[in-house]
Each structure stands twice: as C-alpha cells, then as structure tokens.
Amino acid sequence: MDARLNYFASPTAGKALKYFMSAGKALKESSLPATTQELVALRVSQINGCAVCIDMHTKEAAAAGETAVRLALVAAWREATVFTEAERAALELAEQGTRVADAADGVGDEVWTRASQHYDEEQLTALVILISFMNTVNRLNIITQQPAGTYEVGQFH
C-alpha cells in the first residue's frame, strides 16, 4: 500500500508538522509516566484503527520494557488484571476522550474524578493533551492511508 501523501516531501507539512511534533516531544518530557503515555497512545490508536501508530507505540513500549502480555491486553484493559488503578483511570479517560462523538456527555465526571485521584494537575494536563495529540496524529495517518509495519524504535526521536 502506498500513502496518499508523503508528508516528508511537502513543504507545508514540513513547516506545520515541525511545530506539531515538538508538542509530542514536550509530552514525552512531562511528568506523566512514560508507561502510561505509551499505553494511552496505543489505546487511542486501537480505537481509531491507526495501524501506523499501533505499530509505533507497540514497538516503543516493548523497547522500553513493557511486557507482551500487557500490550496484548490493552484493548481489553477493563477485564485485565495487569494494569494499575492509575493506568486504568488513564485508559478510561483516553477512551472517553477519544469517543466523544459516541457519548453525548463527553467525558463523565466520574471518569475525571478517578483520573484526578491518580494524577496531579500537571500530569492531567499532559494526559489530556496526549489524548488530543494522538487523535490528531491518528487522523493524519488514517486519512492519507500511511502504511504500517516498518517502524523502527526511535525512528522519529
């Protein structure tokens, strides 16, 4: 499969994505735990069906020491016993924040309260921006049918 657009060859994409990707770098440097970031990025990408991001975040998480069992169970985190309460709260927030169109009420107060019990304001800020960031990246890749499977760990760092 060939991508509809080559972002790397486009001057417009080069300018815009330079700034956009710097936001991703700022998130990596935040106090939100790296494991939580990868799990959330993976879950958002699974919901949206973004193969490129699933490929990337599965490989990045594995390289950082995440287990194959936890990675395999992200899609079924509610029934899995391998996630901490904090990770479960982040995954729940990620799901509701991604499925905004599916839920007339958006992110519920109970979900927000659970997340705020595990993360301070700075971490919650990073989590909300990460969820939004991943939804945007997913759409950039899905609309242009970016192919997946060839990502190498650290490729975009």
UniProtKB/TrEMBL annotation:
Transmembrane segments: none annotated. Residues 16-95 form the Carboxymuconolactone decarboxylase-like domain. It comes from the Bacteria. This is Carboxymuconolactone decarboxylase family protein. It comes from Streptomyces fimbriatus.
